[in-house]
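Ticket #4471: structure export looks truncated?
Reporter: QA, pipeline team
Priority: medium

Steps to reproduce: submit the single chain below to the structure queue and open the exported record.
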Amino acid sequence: MSDELSGFTVGVTADRRRDELAALLERRGARVVLAPALRIVPLADDTELRAATRACLDHPPNVVMANTGIGMRGWLEAAEGWGLAEPLRSVLGQAYIVARGPKARGAIRAAGLHDEWSPASESCEEVIEHLQRRGVEGQVVAMQLHGERQPECTAALEAAGATVIEVPVYRWAPPTDPAPLHRLVDLITGRLVDAVTFTSAPAAGALLRAAGASGDAVLDALRSDVLAACVGPVTAAPLRRHGVPVAAPTRARLGALVRTIVDELPQRAVNLKVAGHVLTLRGHAAVVDGELRPLAPAPMSVLRALAATPGRVLSRAALLRTLPRGADEHAVEMAVARLRAGLGAPGVVQTVVKRGYRLPVD
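Actual output as written to the record:
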């Protein structure tokens, strides 16, 4: 058990591997908010996949672009159900197979096929550049899609003279229950999560769509106070286009993503020496002389405001602005009382008569 992320709250937008990612984060002490932005569903009507498979059998591809492990396995399983598994495997076995990442490579090898090349970046763009350099004029390229069409990749290959067969194995759909995602939007805009993880590029777009009119507020939070942590550069691209600074590991793995968060979040903690105590602000908690003290949102908001200008007196009116709309000055007094009780360290929050409150920094 590790406490590297104790006091921090992390939102998880993944669906398929959310439990695995949550366990990795919780093992390091984080509080996790699960809010799947999308879910993968098999093609309800597999006529498109069957037509694409038939096209590959009628016009054997010279090149196969395998994007995901789940997609390649799903394609071969569907072909098995139609009695086409052996003809398809035979056709794929004659092709130059490019695996975008290790999971796609694993699925290819498990099927008894051989992959020829993989991009270091695991990006579709690098695959396209490789195929353009290699030359695809007059060739048939079968592109296994990962959730959505990739019109820019298809267009680039067609411009290089290839005929592209798009193979749609699954698609993205909204979550069955959208309530957790809407709650995550509120937590992001309220700065009540410290980081949000993304494991697919469409998840970022889904989060912003769910935000609706609050989309700009979500982007403001992600550009400043809330860390956007993406599993890799492909996932990060949509957020970067919105000007969001993204933390992403060099290798697109869940373990590497968690290590990136472990490296980033503690650096954002605020450290102060106040009234003889060592005080650290971490997400939803304060660490007082090495002891973690979880705090409710209102006391934590007051503490953050006081810590932003340590030593300076903030009036009740100034602190009121940090609390939810509709609160009054009595709510400030209550929040301060709860803060003092939660910190358990006398003298950290000092009352300055008729003026307000301050942190008496050493």
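Status: closed, not a bug. The export was complete when the record was re-opened. Leaving a note from the reviewer for reference: The mean pLDDT is 93.
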